[in-house]
Each structure stands twice: as C-alpha cells, then as structure tokens.
C-alpha cells in the first residue's frame, strides 16, 4: 500500500508540472528547447546514457525517461513509468530517480548533502544549471538507481 501511495503522489506531482510535448523522441525533445538550456539537457542526456546504457530512453509525460517498465500496484492501478527521467522546467532542470532502498529512502535523498546547490525532493534533483551539481555524485545516484527496484516494484 505504501508503494501505491508513493507512486500516485509522484505521478500527480509530475502531471501538474509538465507541459504536453509533441516530441516523439529524446532528440525532438531536446531540439525544441532554447539555448542555453538545450546544450545542458543534451549534455545530461548523453551523460545519463553513458552512465546507465541499459536504460532505454523514451519520451514519457513530457520528459525524457530512461528504463521504461509496466507497473501494476497493489491497488490494481497499472501504467507505464521509467526508472529515471530528465526534464527541462521553466526555472530549472530536473533529474528524477524513482527508486528507494529497502528502508524506503529515495536514492536521491541519500545524496542531498553532497549536492548543496541542488534542491532535492524525494526522487527529484532540481538545479538551475549543470555547474550547480557534482557529476560524480550524480553518476553514483544513477548507478545506484539502476540496480535498485523502482518504487512501484
């Protein structure tokens, strides 16, 4: 039940934040972004693909998702989701890692102290520009997220 509630809360937050996009591929998504953000999203997209190459990139809910999977929660709700995601917001860039450890602690939250210029909220890492985050720490988060089951599992 706890995982169901967490997934529904995350889904509702995301649906309220993203504008619909006509992009069908990550390349189309990135092409639609203006500079200087476009270059930063492109750099992060390449970084994520290099770090977790087994997680296939797709467009989902107005962002680039990595590692799509079909879930069915204990309440019976079903849908498509991704293990990780990258989004260009109006005022910041977001990286989502929808995984929690066996104690229910979200992976991103565990590294909060190592990303002082970022705003961390459960599965979300928000920052204004790529220079505001330590890419070595982000790599650790991505790698740990790749081997940790998503929150709906």
Provide structural commentary:
It contains five helices and six strands. Helices cover 35% and strands 24% of the residues. With 153 residues, the chain is of the alpha+beta class. It has helices at 2-17, 26-31, 37-51, 107-110, 135-146; strands at 57-60, 63-72, 78-88, 93-97, 119-121, 124-127. The mean pLDDT is 87. Strand 1 (57-60) and strand 2 form a beta hairpin.
Outline of the structure:
The protein has 153 residues and is α+β, with helices and mostly antiparallel strands. It has helices at residues 2-17, 26-31, 37-51, 107-110, 135-146; strands spanning 57-60, 63-72, 78-88, 93-97, 119-121, 124-127. It is globular and about 40 Å long.
Q: SSE layout and pairings?
A:
Layout: H1 2-17, H2 26-31, H3 37-51, E1 57-60, E2 63-72, E3 78-88, E4 93-97, H4 107-110, E5 119-121, E6 124-127, H5 135-146
Antiparallel strand pairs: 1-2, 2-3, 3-4, 4-6, 5-6
């Amino acid at each position: 039940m706890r995982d169901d509630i967490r997934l529904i809360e995350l889904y509702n937050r995301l649906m309220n934040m993203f504008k619909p996009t006509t992009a069908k591929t990550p390349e189309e998504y990135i092409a639609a972004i203006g500079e200087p953000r476009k270059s930063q999203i492109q750099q992060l997209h390449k970084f994520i693909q290099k770090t977790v190459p087994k997680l296939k990139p797709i467009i989902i809910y107005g962002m680039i998702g990595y590692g799509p999977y079909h879930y069915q929660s204990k309440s019976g709700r079903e849908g498509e989701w991704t293990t990780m995601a990258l989004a260009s917001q109006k005022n910041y860039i977001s990286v989502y890692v929808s995984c929690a450890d066996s104690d229910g602690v979200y992976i991103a939250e565990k590294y909060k102290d190592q990303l002082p210029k970022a705003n961390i909220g459960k599965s979300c890492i928000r920052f204004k520009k790529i220079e505001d985050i330590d890419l070595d720490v982000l790599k650790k988060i991505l790698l740990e997220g790749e081997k940790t089951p998503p929150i709906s599992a």
